[in-house]
Amino acid sequence: MEIKIHDAPGRGKKQCPQCKLYIGVRNRVCVCGHEFIAAQKKSTSTAQAPEKQEPKPVFNRKDFFSTTISTPAGKCPANLADTDYETVEEWAEKIIRHGEAKNVVYAVSALKYWSRQFYDVFSEEYKLIAQHLNEIMTPTLEVGYEDDEDVTTEGEDDAD
Ligand SMILES: [Zn+2]
User: Is this prediction's pTM over 0.85?
Assistant: First the structure.
């Protein structure tokens, strides 16, 4: 079998450790007689597998606003008279405007906290109000949910 000898490295060539000549990678024996042992495939692929990136939340207003209140102190600045959506929305707006005047942002949990001054935490009314607040306040003030909601995002389904 004829062996082509090269004096420079390149694609499809390998260097003989014995005579330092470059020969085609397919040659198992060099012109000098050196025998190449079948190259073992290095399993570096697993170590270099790119890690799947954690899905980042779209809204992270915590960094955006200077002060976010999730547990307000004192008396609620607005009176919550009813549990229907519009009343709750009006009430929430009053509080949000009240906060803006003080350069403070109230989280959903803050509004829920205050609504409990009007309705018991275990009451059906409070459940309703909390639901309304979630709708009203999401996503612009999606900060400080007191309910430990499962927002884990599973990876996309790899349907093959
Ligand atoms: Zn050689």
Answer: no
